[in-house]
Amino acid sequence: MAEKKESWRFVRTEPLSPAMNMAIDEAILVQHSKGEVPPTVRFYTWEPSSLSIGYFQEVEKEVDMDQVRAHGLGFVRRPTGGRAVLHDTELTYSVVVSEQHPAFPPSVIESYQVISRGLMEGFRELGLNAEMVTVQPGKHQQSLKKPQSAVCFDTPSWYELVVEGKKVAGSAQTRQNGTILQHGAILLDMDVDLLFDVLRFPSEQVKQQLKSSFFNKAVAINQLLSEKIDVETASEAFFKGFSKGLGVTLEPESLTEEEWNLAQQLAETRYARDEWNFKR
């Protein structure tokens, strides 16, 4: 007799502002840490298309806010680390689960690997042979100390998901109140010109060099498939992928009233405020 799988909650939200998207992720984390909601996988998109930066990035040094505004993009600082991500034609995911969950090792590096299994299975559902490649710790530390660019997909993580040798998903993680929040971007298409327009570089030459190398390091799903897919198709594939990769049953549900209220409060007091977004 097959063993009964653990049930996790699956939430799919409508396209939301960058402030609300980050606020909802944090609200789920807070409520899960209190035992109010189960482990949760959430899929979402952004309205308008937005640039998000990592918690430790310096806006003045790394982002051209005039260009961000000129292109009509939203902007937000994430509660997680990592580099800049342009959220345009993509599916964004978040996973919230207790650090004490038996399936999750205590180390950040190993927990990345667990969640990456869900992503890997999602790519395989689309017929793409995604593989998990371990980046040498020394190499990763070096890249964190001296990042070559402000771009997320240009910087290696501990466990890279690659298709045909190129990075296909960028993720970042934080831990608060004994709870893991990991979220990341699954690119369907990527506008590399727009991404490099809104970031700052030491010189035009450096910008062009990094832009050229970026094409060799990152790839979007629709560059790999013979027939393009939309966000709905991607959502169905990664829903199956996370279920299989995490070994759980995902139960579609809505956010609770408490989560919505907390998210609206967090958006107003933190993620929509210049004090948060431009603080470093």
Helical residue percent band: 40-55%
Any idea what the radius of gyration is?
18 Å
Shape, principal axes of CA atoms:
globular
Instruction: Name the CATH homologous superfamily.
Output: Bira Bifunctional Protein, Domain 2
**What proportion of the residues form beta strands (DSSP E)?**
15-25%
Main sheet makeup: 6 strands, mixed
Q: Can you tell me the residue ranges where pLDDT is under 50 for at least 5 consecutive residues?
A: 138-147
- Give the name of the CATH architecture: 2-Layer Sandwich
Mean pLDDT over the full residue set? 91
Short description:
This protein has 11 helices and 12 strands.
Keywords for this structure?
BirA Bifunctional Protein, domain 2; six-stranded mixed β-sheet; alpha/beta; 280 residues
Structure notes:
By secondary structure, the protein is an alpha/beta fold. The protein has one domain (6-260): BirA Bifunctional Protein, domain 2 (2-Layer Sandwich). The chain contains eleven helices and twelve strands. It has helices at 18-33, 59-62, 65-70, 108-125, 137-145, 192-197, 204-217, 221-224, 231-246, 257-271, 274-277, and strands at 6-12, 40-44, 50-53, 74-77, 85-87, 90-98, 131-134, 159-163, 166-167, 169-176, 179-187, 248-252. The strands form three sheets. Strands 10-11-6-2-1-12 form a six-stranded mixed β-sheet, with helices on both faces. A three-stranded mixed β-sheet has the order 4-3-5, with helices on one face. It has a three-stranded antiparallel β-sheet with strand order 7-8-9, with helices on one face. Helix 1 (18-33) packs across helix 10 (257-271) and helix 4 (108-125) packs across helix 9 (231-246).
